[in-house]
Amino acid sequence: MSTAGATTIESLLDLDSLLSEEDRDLRTMVRQFGEQRLRPHIAEWYEAGEVPVRELAPEIGKLGLLGMHLTGYGCSGSSATAYGLVCQELEAVDSGLRSLVSVQGSLAMFAIHRWGSEEQREQWLPGMAAGELIGCFGLTEPDFGSNPGGMRTTARRDGSDWILNGSKMWITNASVADVAIVWARSQDDDRRVVGFAVPTSTPGFSAREMTHKLSLRASVTSEFSLDDVRVPDDARLPEAQGLSGPLSCLSEARFGIVFGAVGAARDCLEATLDYVGSRQVFDKPLAGYQLTQAKIADMAVELAKAQLLALHLGRLKDEGRIRPEQVSVGKLNNVREAITIARQCRTLLGANGITLEYPVMRHAGNLESVLTYEGTSEVHQLVIGEALTGVSAFR
């Protein structure tokens, strides 16, 4: 079936008209990097459950994508919208690759940039921006995910040092990281939450990669333990006071997911459109059936709405007006719609949809994790519910 002159997903609502030429050029550059450097290997990495983080990070750093929305210390200070578009293009290849950039820039680097000392910024950020140093973000614990306030990891004063004990779980890049942002509960100051930039070479720090995953297989997921890890006071993030520190970092990461989920959904739909145009069923293309077109139309409309929401939130963030509940709206809606699109696309690909020859099942599997991390759907529903009613339902 000829598709000459067919409307593309992006041209359906002329969404490119909402972007600056600079943003479009950046998107094109990252898309080309994804197609040429990442996509040829992603199925292999996913199937093997391995990804060459140490090899990829410097390449991504050379493109200026690590911590790109931060200013100074080797970071370009780009707009939030530009950063979102980068997340979108990386996740169009695989959620794990977007996670690499998101955890490095929006969690580990942002924590140091926003809450660290000048000395910490100069020590860590240039190398992290270049991809020469890898960071991870240790908040989630085996028994405390959605309730970080219940964390059991402790920090105890010992003279001019701190002694850290505890464990963190589901931590991206921890087993390959040079520095871990560790959040702990102080035993010396009303059990307030404090943060530290801990070199992973510190005695007592150990990490191991988590295996047997059925999602985010092209991503390094680890757990790490702190066994009487001694760090000087200058490893503490001095500006972080209480849970506002780690929660602000999570809001940064969630923003990237708002755009990233759009990329995963778009890749599913593009692959499906190509497939149904060539797949012959009962002597005509699958694309020529009304039920096929109804599914495609519904998915395209939801995808366009998700893209518009992401761009709107990007504008709000660029203007410094975005609120946490607005990020929750974006994360809740866009991931929920993306996983619905992935599942629907799989139905159109039939049995072919479960193979790694096509990206759909891989995206669907990844989105199961994206639906959960950086706040489950239920958490974001409660954030939005509290904003609308003025009543907290968390407890």
Features of this protein?
395 residues, disordered N terminus, alpha+beta, single chain, 11 strands, Butyryl-CoA Dehydrogenase, subunit A, domain 3, 10 helices, Butyryl-Coa Dehydrogenase, subunit A, domain 1, 50% helix, Butyryl-CoA Dehydrogenase, subunit A, domain 2
Tell me about this structure:
Residues 1-5 have low confidence and may be disordered. The chain has helices at 21-48, 53-62, 80-93, 95-115, 118-129, 244-278, 290-318, 324-349, 360-370, 377-389; strands at residues 71-72, 75-76, 135-138, 154-158, 161-172, 179-186, 193-199, 205-209, 221-232, 280-281, 284-285. Helix 1 (21-48) packs parallel to helix 3 (80-93) and helix 7 packs antiparallel against helix 8. The strands form three sheets. Strands 3, 4, 5, 6, 7, 8 and 9 form a seven-stranded mixed β-sheet that branches. The chain has a two-stranded antiparallel ribbon with strand order 1-2. The protein has ten helices and eleven strands. It has 395 residues and is α+β, with helices and mostly antiparallel strands. It folds into three domains: 15-129, Butyryl-Coa Dehydrogenase, subunit A, domain 1 (Orthogonal Bundle), CATH 1.10.540; 135-235, Butyryl-CoA Dehydrogenase, subunit A, domain 2 (Beta Barrel); 244-389, Butyryl-CoA Dehydrogenase, subunit A, domain 3, CATH 1.20.140.10.
In a nutshell, what does this entry contain?
With 395 residues, the protein is of the alpha+beta class. The N terminus is likely disordered. It has ten helices and eleven strands.
